[in-house]
Every structure is written in C-alpha cells, then in structure tokens.
Design a protein that fits this description.
The structure holds 3 protein chains of 3 kinds. By secondary structure, chain A is an alpha/beta fold. Chain A has 9 helices and 12 strands. In chain A, α3 (112-122) packs across α4, α4 (128-141) packs across α5 and α5 runs parallel beside α6 (187-203). Chain C has a single domain, classed as MetI-like (MetI-like fold), CATH 1.10.3720. The longest helix of chain C has 35 residues, at 45-79. In chain C, 39% of the residues are buried. The chains are: A alpha/beta, B mainly alpha, C mainly alpha.
C-alpha cells in the first residue's frame, strides 16, 4: 500500500498510555500531515513528551494504534488483523522518525563528527566517505564546521544540542521530534538552537513535532499549535487562533499564567 | 559400593567434623578482622602523618604487603618467624598474618573515609582549639567511621573466605577439614561441595546485609 | 609553648621510626650471626625464575579466561532474559560466595573422580579456577558499569534505530570500558596473587619452587624474602598502572 500524499504521515488512533495510576494519554486521536510543523504546548506533566516518546518507540502504548507513513508502528499486519510488531518491523517503521532530546544524549566517547556519522554508517550501511561528507555538511549547516573533532564534553550546551540535531538529520527522517530541546540550556544559548530549528522549518519537506515552552518560537514556526492537558487534546488550530483567541477556558488560563511570566 | 552421584549418607556422617572446621574458620575470621580493623586504622593514621619519615615507610610497608600473596606471607610467618625464636601455634600465626594482610586493605577504606570529611570540620576543630587527639576521637572518626561500615563488612566476608588459605599452614579450619575427610575416604565430591555450601551459606547472606547497609548510607 | 609541643611530637615520631629501624637491624644481625650465609642468595634465583615462568603463564591464561567470562556473564546479567540472568546470577554468586581455594580443590580433586571423570592437568585446573573466580567478580564490575550508563544513551541509540547488539558494542561497552578498566586492573593484581594457591595443587609456580627449595637447601629467610620481592616486582607496576588509569578521564576534560 502506497501512502497517498494527502494521507497523514503520523496518525494516533485511540492511543492510551498510563504509568501506574497516572493516565498520560487518554484515547488520543491525533494526525500530523506530511511536512506539517506541529507544536504541542501545555502544563508540565500533561503527557506532551509521552506523545513523542511513544512515537519514537521509547514507551509502549497500552492501547490503540499509531500509523507512520501508512504503516502501523507498534503492530504489523497479519492477514487483515494487527498483531504486535516484531523487532524487525519496529526497526523498519522507526527509520522514518528522528528525535532530538532535552538532554542531548550525545555519545560522550565519540567526536562531534562521529556522533553524526555513526548511525548512517552502521545502521543505514552508508559508505564511510559519503557519511562523513554529509556529516560535515550538516555540521556546517548548524554552524559547527570548526568543531568536528571536539568531544561533547568540550562543547557548550547549545553546541551539543546543535550536534544532536545534525545527528538526527543525518538519518533523513520523514518526521522529526523535538522534546523540550532548549529546556536544559542556559538562557543565552537558547537562541542559537532555535535559529537552527527555525531554518529547518523553513526548508520544509520534513514533518516536525515539537514540545516546547518557548511560546514566541512556537507561534513563529508552527503550522498548527496543539494545547494538550491531562492526556487529551484540549484545543488546536493555527497559532494565531490558539495564542490570539483561545476558546477553551483551560487554554486561556494556561496562556494567562505563561504570558504573565 | 553403589555409584551414587552424591552420597548423602556419607555427607551426613562427616557433617559434625566439618562444622567443627567451620567453627575454627569463624574464630579465625573474627579475631583476624578485629586485628585488621585496628591495624588498618593505625596504618591509615600513619600514612596521613605530616612527618614523611613516618608516612613514607608505613606507606611502603602497606604497598608491599598488599602487593604480595597472603599465602607467601603465611609461609613466612609459619616457617621464618620460629627461626628468630617466635614460636606460636599455627592458629595464632595464621590469624595474625590474615589480620595484617587485610589491615592494608582496611587502611585504604579509612583513608578514603577520612578524606571524605569536610575541611570545615577540621577548621572548626582548630578554631575551637581542640587537641589533635580530641579532634580525631571527638570530631573526625565519629563522622568518618559509620559510612565505612559497609566497606569493612565486605572485607569481613572476604576474610571469611580467604581464611581457607590457613589450611596451607596446618590450621584445621573448614577447608583443611574437608580435604582431610576427602583424603581418608577418597571421595572428594561430598566434603568439598559441603564445604562450599557452608562458605556460601554464611557469606552470601552476609554480603546481602552489607549491600543493604551500602544502600542505606548511599541514600543519605 | 607551641614550638616545644611541635618538637616533642617530632622527636616522638622519630623515636618510633628509630625503634623500628633498630628492630629490623637487630633482626638481620641476629640472622647473620646464627646462620652466616655461605653465598649471596643469587644462586637461588634460577630455580625461582623457572617458577616465575609458570606464575606468569597462569596469570596470563587466567586473566584471558576471566576477561571473557566477565564480559559475557556481565553483559548477560545486565541485559539477558530472566532465565539467562538467573543462571548467570547463580554462577556469579556461587563463585563469589565461596572460597577460591575450595573452588580450586573442587576442580582439581573432584572432577577427575566419578561421576565426572574429567582429568585436568594442574595447569588447566589452575587456569579454570582462577578464570572462573576472578571472572565472577569481573562480571559484577561489568554489570555495574553497564548499569551506570545513563538511560538517555540507550534512548538516543533507539532513536538512531540501532539494533540491540550494535547498541551494546558501539555505545554501551565503549563507555562502560572507562569505568571497568581500573577495577579490572585491581582484579588482575588479585589474580596474580591468587596464582600462589596453585602451589597447593602441585603446580610448580614461584611459591611451589620456594617451598621445595626450603625443604632441599633450607635458607628459609632468603628464599621467602626473594619470593616476596618477585611478587612485589610483578604486582607493583600493575598497581601504578591502575592509579594512572584512575587519573585518566578521557572525555571528562
């Protein structure tokens, strides 16, 4: 089955996830169109990050089906039924997705360059020369062309996060997840990372799913903003509408609290 | 005689003898551990001395004892000391050698524990004009020793197992008892297995206790 | 007043040292008077050095076995399924929970008899006992080091679509290595010292040669002091190596 270009690249169908007593995703239905830039905002502990983590296969949903590019992520087709995915299937579908983490998670024993080339060479089986050439391009692109041989411990937080973005881009994902990527940074380093993401958003063809507390940034880059609370989508729409004229009471009080800061 | 895999009859028969051996092992371990705890503290304090003429030789002795096998040290205590008129029963000789050997290990624990005491404690003691003895006994050691207890416990368990080496100098502890039983009947499976079980039954629960203590102090 | 106090402390310190040195000097003097040496102890060296070859061989073979066992068992205990973890855990706890000498005797005396009928040379028995014993301690080191890898490293590897084996080889083990090396160095020193135990199963290592010399030519003091020096010369460079490793923090600059 070939995915139609108007089909969503990501679709959550009735997805539920609980940690013990705490239900973080409640029967979530949620689509992302190809090349769409979606920002998820909401109070902390509302389960925003879990959406990304289930999509990256870091957490397993309790119920529901997630579709990525027309294929079920946590399931595979067996005749007409969906059965739990094999490791092989999981790896195949997961290849469409990339992620940038709050705490960078760079490999400390590898240089910036090797952080970026490692997975293309060994996972994608790309020839070493090609992978390095592309890695140098990507690192140049994020403004770190002069730090190729540096280890993560020799880089600032902002630089680390830019290497992490290059590392994720090198896998050419169709969907990129950004999980509070500026939350662990000193305030003066936030800008350089947001600039890189802004450029990526402008370039276009990759779908982006961002969880962030940077409201101004969300307004600027998003095609759609989703306000998420208590495991549910409370309200969603174009940024002007959500930020400028929220309809729901919870959305209003959240933005009042945030914007007053 | 039937070719049983494990002759329980035989094993039950020699258990009383084996338990006597275990009792000797326990006695040796406890006495040697007390010795190691005291010697280790002295070595640690000696190595910390401001006087290099004290610190250096003690450091060298500690390194030397740590770097050579306990078995050879046992032989030296057993064969060499009597030539200088120091004649002692093997039990005593073995206990002293074991205590001295592990004293070099416990000294490292004391050293690390003392180093972990905040500088401010020393400075406060100086500011209150405490004597050096009062500083150590009243301020430093009471804070330093409790967190060391798990590490010391680990060495207690290690000494319990390593005391088996005293069998080489004729101390009739658990291992030598097992060996003697085996030699007499030419069945080694049962005595050595049962000896292993006895070691395990004591050391495994003890190390679990030590782990629990470690967690408790790590949680602080 | 403080000066006097200081001086007193100093003298007291020196007095202990002087007494110690005097004691050693007197001991050596007495030894020389009772047993005047016919020759310097160098004639003992060739036999002891023959034992040294066995000690080194045992150390290297035992260390090789221990290394393999430690990595396999450590990785299995950190990441295997419940059955593998239980079996490996049983092995590790048994070998850590009992005396190495009993393990050595068990392998040497029990295995050749029925029902096992597995005859091992003393060297094989020694290597097996040392390797399995030290390997069990090493496995715990490996497991601890793997457990200390931050969760984010595993998540990043999943996000880059690495299969579990590749994640282990390329991300986890290289990072765990830094934590593993110093304790492994210490285990190597323990293994070297434990090789002396094989003298008790008739393997002619340094200690065994020493015991034989004591019986044949006497000169107990010289023989055992030489043995101590030999072990010290083998172990101390390893100690220094471990300290050097501990000072190296490759990525932490």
């Amino acid at each position: 089955m070939q995915a139609n270009s108007s089909d969503p690249i990501v679709r959550f169908e009735n997805v539920t996830k609980a940690f013990g007593e705490l239900t973080v995703l409640r029967n979530l239905d949620f689509d992302v169109a190809p090349a769409e830039k979606v920002t998820i905002v909401g109070p902390s502990g509302s389960g925003k990050t879990t959406i990304l983590r289930v999509l990256m296969t870091l957490e397993k949903p309790d119920d529901g089906v997630i579709w990525v590019d027309g294929e079920p992520l946590w399931h595979q087709k067996s005749g007409s039924k969906l059965v739990p995915a094999s490791e092989k299937h999981l790896r195949k579908v997961r290849g469409n997705i990339g992620m940038v983490f709050q705490h960078f998670n760079l490999f400390p024993h590898m240089t910036a360059l090797r952080n970026v080339t490692e997975a293309p060479i060994h996972v994608l089986k790309m020839p070493k020369g090609d992978a390095e050439q592309r890695a140098v391009e990507l690192l140049n692109h994020v403004g770190l062309g002069d730090k190729l041989g540096h280890y993560p411990s020799q880089l600032s937080g902002g630089q680390k996060q830019r290497v992490a973005i290059a590392r994720a881009l090198a896998m050419r994902p169709k969907v990129m997840l950004f999980d509070e990527v500026t939350s662990a940074l000193d305030p003066e380093l936030v800008g350089e990372v947001l600039n890189v993401i802004r450029e990526l958003a402008e370039e276009g063809e990759m779908a982006m799913l961002l969880v962030t507390h940077e409201m101004g940034f969300a307004r600027e880059v998003s095609d759609r903003v989703v306000f998420f609370d208590k495991g549910r989508v409370v309200e969603q729409g174009p940024p002007e509408q959500i930020f400028g004229n929220p309809q729901n009471e919870r959305t209003k009080s959240f933005f009042n609290a945030v914007l007053r800061h | 005689m039937s070719e049983q895999f494990f002759d329980w009859e035989y094993a039950i028969g020699f258990m009383p003898t084996l338990l006597e051996g275990l009792w000797v092992t326990i006695q040796v371990t406890v006495v040697a551990f007390i010795l190691a705890a005291i010697l280790g503290l002295l070595m640690a304090l000696g190595r910390r001395s401001d006087n290099p003429w004290i610190a250096q030789p003690i450091g060298a002795i500690v390194e030397f004892i740590r770097s050579t096998p306990l078995l050879v040290q046992l032989f030296i205590f057993f064969y060499v000391l009597p030539r200088y008129g120091l004649r002692m029963p093997a039990f005593i000789v073995g206990t002293i050698a074991l205590g001295l050997h592990y004293g070099t290990y416990t000294s490292e624990i004391y050293r690390a524990g003392i180093d972990a005491i905040d500088r401010g404690q020393w400075e406060a003691a100086r500011a209150l004009n405490f004597s050096p003895v009062r500083t150590w006994v009243g301020i430093v050691l009471p804070q330093a020793i409790p967190p060391m207890i798990p590490a010391l416990g680990n060495y207690l368990v290690a000494m319990f197992k390593e005391s088996a080496q005293l069998s080489a100098i004729t101390v009739v502890e658990l291992t030598l008892t097992a060996r003697t039983i085996g030699t007499q009947s030419f069945r080694f499976l049962e005595p050595f297995t049962m000896a292993g079980v006895l070691y395990f039954l004591i050391s495994y629960p003890s190390s679990l206790v030590v782990q629990r203590l470690e967690k408790r102090y790590a949680g602080k | 007043m403080p000066n006097e106090d200081n001086l007193f402390v100093k003298i007291r310190n020196y007095i202990f040292l002087v007494i110690g040195l005097l004691a050693i000097g007197i001991a050596i003097g007495v030894e020389l008077m009772i047993n005047p040496p016919e020759s310097p102890p160098f004639d003992l060296l060739p036999i002891l050095l023959r034992g040294l070859a066995v000690t080194i061989e045992l150390t290297l073979l035992g260390a090789a076995l221990a290394l393999v066992v430690a990595i396999v068992a450590g990785v299995a205990r950190a990441s295997g399924n419940i059955i593998v973890r239980t079996i490996v855990g049983f092995y590790v706890e048994v070998f850590r929970g009992t005396s190495i000498l009993v393990q050595l005797f068990w392998i040497f005396f029990v295995l050749p008899l029925p029902p096992f009928n597995l005859s091992l040379t003393p060297l094989q028995a020694g290597v097996l006992a040392l390797g399995l014993n030290v390997g069990a301690y090493g496995a715990e080191v490996v497991r601890g080091a793997i457990g200390a890898i931050p969760r984010g490293q595993i998540e990043a590897s999943i996000a880059l679509n690495m299969p579990p084996g590749m994640m282990m080889r390329r991300v986890i083990i290289p990072q765990a290595m830094v934590r593993i090396l110093p304790p492994f160095g210490n285990l190597l020193i323990e293994l070297l010292k434990a090789t002396s135990l094989v003298s008790l199963i008739t393997l002619s290592d340094v200690t065994f040669q020493g015991l034989a010399l004591r019986q044949s030519v006497g000169r107990t003091t010289e023989v055992f002091l030489l043995i101590l020096v030999i072990y010290f010369l083998l172990a101390y460079p390893l100690t220094l190596g471990v300290r050097w490793l501990e000072r190296q923090r490759q990525w932490a600059t």
